[in-house]
Amino acid sequence: MYLWINIFTNLMKQILIFLVVIFFSSCKPSEKNTLNQKPNDIETEIVISDNQIHFQVKNISNDTIVLYNPQRLNIQRFVNNNWEKVRILNCPCGAPCAKPDEKLYLFKGQSHSISWDKQESWCGNKNENGIPKTIKSLSLSGNYRIIIIYQLNQADKQTFYKEFEL
């Protein structure tokens, strides 16, 4: 009887080790982060004027690139040694806006541009009609970065950060 318990215990250990190895070997990261490194697939340009910032992403690869959430500005500000998301609405509070595209395909040599008016925006208290007020505030001076998420050839999503200063 002792022999059977010992064999069963060893078998269970081997099965557990096998499952753990399979689990960890099948896990892979879904995104790669590129912190202030120049990616080989895209080229970014930031033009800052008095009342707006113009961002441009160009596909410099030989293949099609997928940009994720191309109409949503994903900007962060560096505050107290941390990056904090800047509140930017795509649509005025309470307005029936269409949902922006989640993906944009950039073919070789194509560019995508988007501008920001340097204002933070968020929804405030509701008025007498039940519609929240859109509140805007000029962004403070400091270090900022735009986050660009893209994918090349069905590979993992890449996250690229491009810093700028106001």
- From the alpha-carbon coordinates, what is the Rg to the nearest angstrom? 24 Å
Q: Spell out the helices and strands N to C.
A: HEEEEEEEEEEEE
Mean pLDDT across every amino acid position: 83
CATH architectural designation: Sandwich
Number of beta-strand segments:
12
Structural class: alpha+beta
Instruction: Characterize the main sheet.
Output: 7 strands, mixed
By CATH reckoning, the class would read Mainly Beta
What features would you highlight for this structure?
globular, Immunoglobulin-like, three-stranded antiparallel sheet, 166 residues, seven-stranded mixed sheet
Short description:
The protein is α+β, with helices and mostly antiparallel strands. Helix content is 15%, strand content 46%.
Structural features, described:
- With 166 residues, the protein is an alpha+beta fold.
- The chain has a single domain, classed as Immunoglobulin-like, CATH 2.60.40.
- Strands 1, 4, 5, 6, 7, 11 and 12 form a 7-stranded mixed β-sheet that branches.
- The chain is globular, with a radius of gyration of 24 Å.
